[in-house]
Amino acid sequence: MDTIDFRDRNSDLVAREQDIGDDPIAARDSDLYRGEYVQTFVEKWDELIDWGARAESEGQFFIDMLKARGKTKVLDVACGTGFHSVQLVKAGFDVTSVDGSAAMLAKAFENAKDHHIILRTCHADWRTLNRDIHGKFDAIICLGNSFTHLFQEQDRRRALAEFYAALKHDGVLIIDQRNYDAILDNGYSTKHKFYYCGDRVTAEPEHVDEGLTRFRYAFPDKSEYKLNMFPLRKNYMRRLLSEAGFQRIRTFGDFQETYQEDDPDFFIHIVDKS
Ligand code: SAM
């Protein structure tokens, strides 16, 4: 497993402007994320997610779930700027942090250093995860509505197969997503309480159809960034997990086990390898 020198080997660190072509609504590809998480957006990400508010709203949920199952060796496959990786290291877990964006990974490393932690990082794409990651893990987390970046079904199946292969025989996968059923069926509303907790940033969809949700993130300094995401329906995601071989799929809504389908902003699936 290589720890990379982010600063000069990765061109997405240099890109400052998002560029997904002339027709953004037509841009529906699993590789888009590389051009979306440009350096300037990554620099702003923590304003969007607000670590303090997020820690408060999530509480110990993920730590409790992992500890209850006796898991210690965790692979954070979408570490972003490092929020969960840092929390888990502080809670005593043995964490490896992966992201396909070198800019995100560099920021995670920097953020962790501010918490006196040297993060074990690996630059990898989920679809070829096991080419870059060695060893098997007790748990994989894929959080913050990350899986939505995969637009092609074959990429989703491939990523889940890679996650499955990277887990020990009794491993657990924790993967979350926005409640896209509510967005597609009823329009967008959010309590803004979970995940994207920064209250000075607005995040809302500017385009929604069955194959695309395009979110706009507007910051107080008037800068704006966009993300194209595939709107995963909850039962479709559960089916994919099941077809990838995962067992005992439990889906929480905003950290609760019982909920009205339309209510939660986010769903969290917790599934076992065997
Ligand atoms: N988990 C972090 C959080 O909650 O703040 C980051 C969430 S961000 C919405 C999604 C992350 O997934 C980005 O850092 C992006 O680079 C990463 N990502 C998207 N597609 C990926 C892929 N195919 N392979 C690896 N990382 C990917």
Provide a short characterization of the protein structure.
With 274 residues, this protein is α/β, with parallel strands linked by helices. The protein has eleven helices and ten strands.
- Total strands: the figure is 10
Structural class: alpha/beta
Give the C-alpha Rg. Answer: 17 Å
- Residue-averaged pLDDT, rounded? 91
Shape: globular
Number of helices: 11
> Ranges with pLDDT <50 over ≥5 residues?
1-13
Q: What separation lies between the terminal Cα atoms? A: 26 Å
Notes on the structure:
With 274 residues, the chain is α/β, with parallel strands linked by helices. It has helices spanning 6-9, 33-36, 39-49, 51-58, 61-68, 83-90, 102-114, 129-132, 153-166, 180-186, 234-243; strands spanning 73-76, 94-99, 120-123, 137-142, 167-178, 202-209, 212-218, 224-229, 247-253, 266-272. The strands form 2 sheets. The chain has a 7-stranded mixed beta sheet with strand order 3-2-1-4-5-10-9, with helices on both faces. A 3-stranded antiparallel beta sheet has the order 6-7-8, with no helix packed on it. Helix 6 links the parallel strand 1 and strand 2 (94-99).
